Amino acid sequence: MSFKTLATLLSVVTFTSAAIIKRVACPDGVNTATNAACCDLFAIRDDIQQNLFDGGVCGEEVHESLRLTFHDAIGIGSNGGGGADGSMIVFSDIETNFHANAGIDEIVEEQKPFIARHNITPGDFIQFAGAVGISNCPGAPRLNFFLGRPDPVAPAPDLTVPEPFDSVDSILARFADAGGFSTVEVVWLLISHTIAAADLVDPTIPGTPFDSTPGTFDTQFFLETQLKGTLFPGTAGNQGEVESPLHGEMRLQSDFELARDSRTACEWQSFVNNQRKLTNRFQAVMLKLSLLGHNQDDLTDCSDVIPVPPTFTGQATFPAGFTIDDVEQACAATPFPTLATDPGPVTSVAPVPPS
């Protein structure tokens, strides 16, 4: 498919507030929508908020649902399968066995009953659940959602989802091939790691977050990945993992290297303490990801069903015990932001608790 220019994308994803938009009353007698086709989504939204996301918590199910939006969409190939079509759920017996999708079977099985009891395709549900889920995270953007993806016709091919031990060259090439993602857009997609954690990269430490604030959609991830660390030799137990100076925190090899690669380092650094850019760019690139394999003109804009996330007004700070001297800066073109350091002794980052 062809994608609009970035400038057009950024304008599309901005919700219109200046104009008065006519809304229709939904049959439930409670909600209104800009399009009657979106009315059924309110019941689905309320169901998953209560029964999948624990009443609206930015926790493990939100993290995993967001991960699923990416793994389902990016696994696009030339065999007619893949893209944001729900193939990860329909062909779960095949796709969840791919090495890159390790551990994703849990959220796939959790989402299946919701699809079974609602009138929604798997491709729509995966993207809808991701957008609703992230709305529970303070600081997150309000993601767009378009309705009308057909059922998948084939499983996505194997080896189409990038892995944390892949080289930067390989990762950039795969994203470009999958959907024409530019180098900076790859960095934008990795904004998702601000609320991410890993269970199986190193199975001995499940629920290990990628930054010290996994329940907040903030810029700490882009700061903490630039603190000095050591690359593991790639043994079986920690392949794709990089030692973090923060005890209890994990850094993926791919994140570590993208933060230091000359093609991506300055874009990476640009997000440190820049909350507005963080939310704006993630909103834009997630729209592009969610439309892989589809034409936006064939779908219905139901973005107004997505809840407005809580605001976040905090600042990025060095964790206690760390300063600018601990930064391994790779962007020579721009000075590193001036940041305060949290008070107190060095502390450990707590794991993300299972639901």
Question: What percentage of residues falls in helices of 4 or more residues?
Answer: 25-40%
Overall shape: globular
Query: How large a portion of the residues is in β-strands, by DSSP E?
Result: 5-15%
Number of strands: 9
Computed over alpha carbons, the radius of gyration is 20 Å
Unreliable residue runs:
1-19, 232-239
Termini separation: 38 Å
What is the ordering of alpha helices and beta strands? HEEHHHHHHEHHEEHEEEHHHE
Strand order, biggest sheet?
Answer: 6-7-8
Q: Could you give a short account of the major beta sheet?
A: 3 strands, antiparallel
Return the structural class: mainly alpha
Number of distinct helices: 13
Q: What is the residue-mean pLDDT, rounded to a whole number?
A: 89
Give the arrangement of secondary structure elements.
Elements: H1 6-12, E1 24-25, E2 32-33, H2 40-51, H3 60-74, H4 87-90, H5 92-95, H6 105-117, H7 122-134, E3 146-147, H8 168-179, H9 183-189, E4 197-198, E5 208-209, H10 220-224, E6 230-231, E7 241-243, E8 251-252, H11 253-258, H12 265-270, H13 275-290, E9 300-301
Antiparallel strand pairs: 1-2, 3-9, 4-5, 6-7, 7-8
Helix pairs in contact: 1-13, 3-7
